[in-house]
Amino acid sequence: MTRAEAAAVFDPWSPEFVADPYPAYARLRAAGRVHRFEPTDQWLIPRYADVAALLRDRRLGRTYLHRFTHEEFGRTPPPPEHEPFHTLNAHGLLDLEPPDHTRIRRLVSQAFTPRTVERLAPTVRRLADDLVARLCADGGGDLLARVAEPLPVAVIAEMLGIPAADRHLLRPWSAAIVGMFELNPTEEVARRAVDASREFSAYLRELIAERRFRPGTDLISALIAAHDDPGDSTARAAGAGASHRVRGRLSEQEMVSTCVLLLNAGHEATVNTTANGWLTLFRHPEQLAALRADPALLPTAVEELMRYDTPLQMFERWVLDDIEIGGTVVPRGSEVALLFGSANRDPERFADPDRLDLGRRDNPHISFGAGLHYCLGAPLARLELQAVFEALLRRAPGLRPAAEPRWRPGYVIRGLTELLVEV
Length: 423
Prior knowledge:
CATH 1.10.630.10, alpha+beta, 12 strands, five-stranded mixed sheet, 10% strand, 2 domains
């Protein structure tokens, strides 16, 4: 496939492509292992084996600034007016490399172990049940706004210790910030992201100052303990009800960036898998009927829905040292675009990948990534998804679509504008 043909097949700004990118992915996979995409100055990687390997390859990184300046790497520094966003983003786990990544992940990970997350299960199930009950009492509504969005935001806010009166601020800030992760964002998108970064950071600094004088049992208090104590400190993890030891130190900027990342990354997967997943079920009535008949399918169903219509379609990494993919040298200074959505439909790894199979057992999808940047919140996301799907299956056995949904224009984090349903 020539560069012009790749550009014609892969069109992330097209509403038609965003609505169904999977036929284009099949063409990219069939045409080769790597494709130069000039509109975004990236190399597209569509096959599962390559995506999985490059996620673990230390010759690539989410940043290059731990080894090179912008100029040494052949890249232009971001505009000064974007500084609030880039400062916030650059100090979060997702865009750090060792040793900083290792230090911060060690401090935060204890709040997200399967055992710790399981202690949150009663709270998560209660929140999901309450949201679904209210939707049913109204005879339906927008499943995205009424159920899919509020649940993970409430859970993360509870873990962080965000006061209930302030939680309405979180989703708009998050939506504005993640707009910068789309391909070639406009200046208006950048302006909103910068404003949200500045406002969210200021809010968190005030909350951190307050929590420093009146610590609680939340994750922010635990991170403050790590910031203030040069050795070890005992703190409690985000509503888990069990003490744990934290080691190392966090700067205040790292605390702020970590909290923002936990909110942004901690709810996008749940929000979009819930809404996209129910749209997928509506379009596969035989599979939905099987799930309603046998709720024991729910754990594998959640994994299959994440594979079948991946909420995060693309994950980008910088090439820190030359690599070779299928005979093509991708030089240092390049950016690779790992196509998660394509990898999860690769017939070389998944039998009959375009078929939705809620009982699929061999399902090593990479919707949560792999390697160093594997999603820290994966156990929590799985808990939330199983809770919300279970509540909807139990309380709304006749749940059905009320209108044809529309996709948001964004491609990288791919989701619906709304999902209107009747019960």
